[in-house]
Task: structure prediction
Amino acid sequence: MSRLALGAALLAPPALAQPRPAATLTPVIGNWVTIDEGGPAFKVDGAGWDGATDRVRLESLSGVLFSPPNVGFVTHGTAPGAFPLAVAQTAGLLTNGSLSVAFKMMGGASDQNAGLIFGLRPNGDYHFVRYNTKDGNVAVWEYMNGVRKVLAHGAAHQQLEMNTWYELVVHLRNGSVQGLVTGTDLRVEQALGSSSQGRVGVWAKRDAITVFRNFRVTP
Result:
């Protein structure tokens, strides 16, 4: 290679990594349907859900996701405060990495929202980052022993439009989490104080109507 060609090669930008294909989501809690939104999309429809969860099916999913089944997974998944969620079964367990999903809020009697879950454990505990219109921010929450608790609220507030696509992103590294909505000032950071290893997926409140697509995991 000539000196001129070598110099050009050194100055050239590195090749971009190919985007990972969208992960398949498995409904766990709530009323989920597959729809076409310019491609495959997953819609949670709280208006069409009576709030009940089939214990037998949940026990079966516990065995599929974690093997063997865990009693806590069923107990917490059928608790009165359990939230709709769908899990990326093929993504495995994630400790460090990034999650992203496109979301479109379409309705909700009390709130409109979308979230990403991570650290889903065999007993059904998990963490999640969500955006909602009620607070107008992103926040980090935990769902432990059938009860949710907020860990951190993002300082920036913005009312995202309904029926519009946005991207929610979560970065996990060494027990800390950062969540953000791409193209906005909405973000939040929190040290979790423990490992975030577990399964990942998407989340919504019980009465939300939200569409998700292009859920991706980058370990």
Observations:
- The longest helix spans residues 55-65.
- The first strand starts at residue 25 and ends at 29.
